[in-house]
Amino acid sequence: MSGIYFHIPFCKTRCNYCDFYKSTNVSLIHSLKQAIKDEITLRIDFIEDKLVQTIYFGGGTPSLLNGNDIEELITTISQLFILGESLEITLEANPDDLTPNYLRSLKKIGINRLSIGIQSFSNQNLKFMGRRHNSDQAIDAVKNAQKVGFDNISVDLIYGIPGLTFQQWQTNLKTVFDLDIQHLSAYHLTYHEGTFFYNQLQKGLIYEVEEEESILQFEELIKVAEENQFIHYEISNFARKGFYSRHNSSYWNQVEYLGLGPSAHSYNKKSRYWNVSDLSDYIEAINLKRVAGEGELLTINDRFNDYIITGLRTIEGINSAYIEKEFGKKYSDAVEQITQKYLLNGKVRKEENRIKIEKKSLLISDQIISDYLYLENK
Fold this sequence. Notes:
About 40% of the residues lie in helices and about 20% in strands. The chain is α/β, with parallel strands linked by helices. The radius of gyration is 21 Å and the shape is globular. The two termini are about 35 Å apart.
């Protein structure tokens, strides 16, 4: 099976924390749509498995596309690939875009999963982050989607925000779970170079939250999610049973995917490719019947490290037997050596062949994962 990812880079405004490639030149929406349709034809052979099980519209703000535009892109995929019977089609959306009429059009064309970028239910925090919706619009978006018939709804929240109190975080969590959603993605605020927040941080105009507060908010997130019968299936993702994000899970399980649009990434188990992060250059190249971007062939070392980075973030962990079979004994021996160290200090656990990071160590998962990466000069 395989997945299709559409990167729709348009945003009406730029959020203060976001480092994804984006453009506020929404006048190019029609040109981009046509270019993406042409790219599909140009790159159909990048992935061998033509059975598509997931389609994901990410961005940017894909909800700036109208229903007809989205339907055209799905139709183009259906003409060149085989669509699975239980196809998951996700659309990322801003709350203020999700009017009842728009939601009905999305439902009609086959969108069956929404990922709503709420980030906070505090108007103070939303304004600070540069979001263009308010708390009431966020709540209305979820409720309107449910009224229209959407029963697979994910919400994004951010914690570790300067000025976000523990009580406000508790209120955010209570509000989101009271909305009876199926999936929650929760991320700690990060300061990416080039963003407004990064520049403010460098100038001393804002300050990162204390580590102790970050830990408290993360622990509260895990606790409240468990109380609401949500499974913590990946470091930043929680879901009711049967509602894991199938598209994102395919990334973590090394499933082939084709990324379409400026800055989109693709993977076919043998190589990676990433499109140019420039809207005009992307469209110009496609009009000349070529794709602008870069790629790399993956070595066995690359594939092993990809497996480690993605696997240790999930509830499934990594499989030592699979590692020996797929990558060889020197890799499985290296994994065993690191595992023994972390078993002694209780930061990982081993269940038969599965190695998993302990819940108490998830906040230092990046450090643990980096130790497992195989470097020739290590």
